[in-house]
TrEMBL record:
GO terms for molecular function: DNA binding. InterPro entries: CheY-like_superfamily, NreC/VraR/RcsB-like_REC, Sig_transdc_resp-reg_C-effctor, Sig_transdc_resp-reg_receiver, Tscrpt_reg_LuxR_C, WalR-like, WH-like_DNA-bd_sf. Keywords: DNA-binding, Phosphoprotein. This is DNA-binding NarL/FixJ family response regulator. The keyword Phosphoprotein applies. It holds the Pfam family Response_reg. Signal peptide: none annotated.
Length: 197
């Protein structure tokens, strides 16, 4: 697999492979020696694995650009990799041009996902979005809470009684399994609910 990637990247203008590693420890040593512009990292490696190597590289150089190339297509792997600090995630089953495109995207300062992983990500978000069960009024109240408004301000803004707003907030907390308003906002943010400015 590495040989195939090396040939693919060697044919791209402006790209060259400066080092290769077969395990996490060798990857750290190669990064320290060569300081590449971008690192392609597999998650399934001996010597601590890819996640550990990503975290170790970023601990030494927080600006390092790391693109995960993995046999795993699940959104959970992509989420975990991004949380660890990777800038992109491409599955090994993606067409070669997706890897090249992802490298350009990450080098341009943006995040990259291969099409199959992005679709899995979107499907998971839709299926797991806990805010889809909220009524339009509950969603309006939650959006205002996320903008930093308190119950009284929300009541004034929506022309509702404070009691109605508090009752709705209780319902929202119950539906989202939130322990309080701060937890409620956090869960809504994780679900991708963004308040209008």
């Amino acid at each position: 697999m590495r040989e195939g990637y090396r040939r693919l990247l060697g044919r791209q203008p402006g790209l060259s492979v400066v080092a290769e590693a077969g395990d996490g420890e060798a990857a750290l040593a190669a990064f320290a020696e060569h300081r590449p512009d971008i690192v392609l990292m597999d998650l399934s490696m001996p010597g601590g694995g890819g996640f550990s190597a990503v975290e170790a590289i970023l601990a030494g150089d927080p600006q390092a650009r790391i693109l995960i190339v993995s046999m795993h297509q699940g959104a959970v792997f992509a989420q975990k990799a991004m949380a660890a600090g990777a800038r992109g995630f491409v599955s090994k089953s993606s067409p070669p041009d997706e890897l090249v495109r992802a490298i350009g995207t990450v080098m341009g300062g943006r995040r990259a996902l291969s099409t199959d992983v992005a679709q899995e990500f979107a499907r998971t978000m839709v299926e797991e979005d806990p805010t889809t069960g909220l009524t339009p009024r509950e969603r309006d109240i939650l959006l205002r809470l996320m903008r930093g408004m308190n119950g009284r301000a929300i009541a004034l803004d929506l022309n509702l009684s404070s009691k109605t707003v508090q009752n709705n907030l209780s319902q929202i907390r119950a539906k989202l399994g939130a322990s309080g308003d701060a937890d409620l906002v956090l869960k809504a943010q994780r679900a991708g609910l963004v308040p209008a400015l």
